[in-house]
Design goal:
Blueprint: H1 4-28, H2 32-56, E1 66-68, E2 74-77, E3 82-87, E4 92-97, E5 100-101, H3 112-117, H4 126-136, H5 141-152, H6 158-178, E6 190-200, E7 226-236, H7 243-250, E8 263-271, E9 273-275, E10 278-280, H8 282-297, E11 304-309, H9 313-322, E12 327-330, H10 332-347, H11 352-366, H12 370-383, H13 388-403, H14 410-416, H15 423-437, H16 446-460, H17 464-477, H18 480-497
Parallel strand pairs: 6-11, 11-12
Antiparallel strand pairs: 1-2, 2-5, 3-4, 6-7, 7-8, 9-10
Helix pairs in contact: 1-2, 4-5, 4-6, 4-17, 5-6, 6-16, 6-17, 7-11, 8-9, 10-11, 10-13, 12-13, 15-16
Amino acid sequence: MMTYEAEILKAQDQFEGILDFTTRAAGEGWPVLDVEMGLWEAFKKLGLAFLRAHVAAQGDGNLGPSVDQPEGKTLRRMEDKSESRYVSVFGELNFSEFVYAERESQKIEIRPVSARLEMPESEFSLLLEQWSQAFAAKESFGEAQEAIQSILGLGISVSAFENMNRRMAEEVGGFRESLGVPPQEDEGEMLILAADCKGVPMVKKEKEPRPKGHRLKKGEKRNKKKMAVVTAVYSIDRFERTADDVMSELRDECEKQERPKPQNKRVRAEMTHIDGGRESNGKDRGLKAAADEIAQRNPGGRKRVGIVMDGEKALWKRVLRLFPMSVFILDLYHVTEYLWDAAHAFFGEGTDEAQEFADKQLREILEGRVGYVIGALKQMATKRKLRGGKKKAVNSAVKYYTNNRKFMKYDKYLAEGLPIGSGVAEGACRHLVKDRMERTGMRWRVEGAQAMLNVRATYLNGDWQGFFDHRIEENSRRYVAQMDIIHAIETERKLKVA
């Protein structure tokens, strides 16, 4: 049984030990690193001693044999005290407390000491979870574990890190809902949604539950990557350019103009999973969330909204429905990739003729003459009697441009100052998904992958401290009803004593 006085005496002894240590080190001229390391270890022990004293000061939670709740229900003090373990950044401590329920084996409804201390639901402190997951959001769970072990000396298992991640991920949704919209004075002139899909490597032979009657689609395989739809919503000022400007930048013939920077960018990634026996489609969730955010950041619909994506039909089908009044833009990067494939089919890789052809056709595209380019590709393919892979490359370009022609009005986009590349989405795919989820040997299950994507997105969005504050507030809210009862009992006791 910890007592406040005993723990304070221990802390005082440890503090005296620190003074002796620093006095001896100063007198003998120890290397500063030796002193620094010694102090760090001593301060951790001292912090744990003071923390134990603080917990001991809250007593054992004895509110009397019974407690009457406001709604008339009576709770009884359980005969055996409840034992709790708390792992702080300083180390582990244990405490016991009386608890109250209607009767034995029933749900415990009041934990007086835990309520006073606002103990988290898990045995790990919120601060420890925050520090641990800051590492885990960037590195593997094993590397995060090693970092915490090295710095704090805590032997936390990898599975505990994974469980922390999933617990925190469950709170991301509530945190996102609590976020207000950025002030209009901090926003750019236009709102942009950039979206793309990125694969996450999955655990082999994962027996993931499937909806009843679900069949694998043509070409679909088990145990492969599962796609996460990555969205980035941001605002930006207009940046008017011409086809000449874009061509010069692509050739590196001029210094790149000072571009407006994306403002208040928020990224997220959603994966398809089974929820309650039904499929919850990641594309639907991700794009609906983006639509809701844009609506909140665009009161009255006064801002121009641009949607920049590649040619994936599944995404276009959804954004056309969700953003009917927006400008739809096919990412220029994918356009040029198809164009280069066709140029190489005609003239060979690395040839001046391929470069000249690609430049000429790209200029036509940038100036709004996509139909001309489609006709030129068809005509040249017929004239040169292409076969095999070369013919396939040209046909793919023709099909891609034909299917997406209505999203390739680059002359108008440039004149309006709209972005024509999805570099933001490409960057989000890399930073949010690839850099963490596709590291060597990593394989995921859907639940764990989605949890990590939620937590990592919060970290990359610059919301880490805000998320921490949100978790503290939500944890405190759990104890409001208990503390009201405890305060009422204590007030009544004081009045009787007076």
